[in-house]
Design a protein that fits this description.
By secondary structure, the chain is α/β, with parallel strands linked by helices. About 40% of the residues lie in helices and about 15% in strands. α6 links the parallel β7 and β8. α2 packs across α7 and α5 crosses α8.
């Protein structure tokens, strides 16, 4: 369509949100606490989200249930919310106690992202998804559900991270398994993720706003 938001499409400029990557990486060095109970030899996943229905954190737990015999890994869940008792119970039912750690709310989530081997984003819908971008700035590969509308944009159509079918524990488990077993691909995603985090920086966002304002001023 030639029209968006009651205005000609030609007059609309899209400016993505940005983050301060230097600040993220600086705060990521503050260290983590309480992870000593997790087996250090196993690959570590991380989720940082409110434990509510739309975040679909249970999908990661189901994927770990699929992987537990052939590709065992651990999971750190940063965040709290109404579904925490349900998620804890499901982890126990799947025999994942000792492999999944609920650390609750943390003011600084970046050290948990940085110490993970893979960051997982499982929302049913998303406006943008800062946590994916922050994880990439920490140098952590990202797997995300290809939900409306943020992950595909943040992950550059899947070039800077892995997009999987929403609601499919099997698809998520397959993506996790691939990253665990393919260090070359993991390294590639780290590089592309860092590149994308630099592209979606606060500085670039401000520069683009400034450019639009200048265009308007000289008309």
């Amino acid at each position: 369509s030639r029209w968006r938001f009651m205005a000609p499409a030609s007059r609309i400029r899209v400016i993505p949100n940005g983050i301060d990557g230097d600040s993220v990486r600086r705060r990521a060095t503050e260290g983590v606490q309480g992870l000593e109970a997790l087996p250090p030899s196993l690959p570590r996943l991380c989720v940082a989200a409110r434990l509510s229905e739309e975040k679909d954190v249970g999908l990661v737990i189901e994927a770990m249930g699929i992987l537990k015999n052939n590709e065992p890994c651990t999971l750190v869940i940063v965040g709290d919310g109404p579904l925490r008792p349900v998620l804890e119970k499901r982890a126990w039912e799947l025999g994942l106690d000792g492999k999944i750690l609920f650390v609750g709310h943390r003011e600084n989530v970046y050290p948990y992202m940085q110490t993970a081997d893979i960051y997982i984003h499982t929302c049913q819908f998303e406006g943008f998804g800062y946590s994916m971008l922050e994880a990439m700035a920490c140098g952590t590969p990202v797997i995300a559900t290809d939900c409306p509308h943020g992950p595909r944009e943040v992950l550059a159509q899947g070039q800077a991270g892995v997009l999987v079918r929403p609601g499919s524990a099997e698809a998520l488990a397959s993506a996790i398994s691939r990253l665990i077993n393919d260090p070359v691909y993991c390294s590639h995603l780290q590089e592309q993720g860092l590149k994308r985090a630099r592209e979606l920086s606060v500085k670039n966002m401000v520069d683009r706003y400034q450019q639009v304002f200048i265009e308007l001023a000289v008309r």
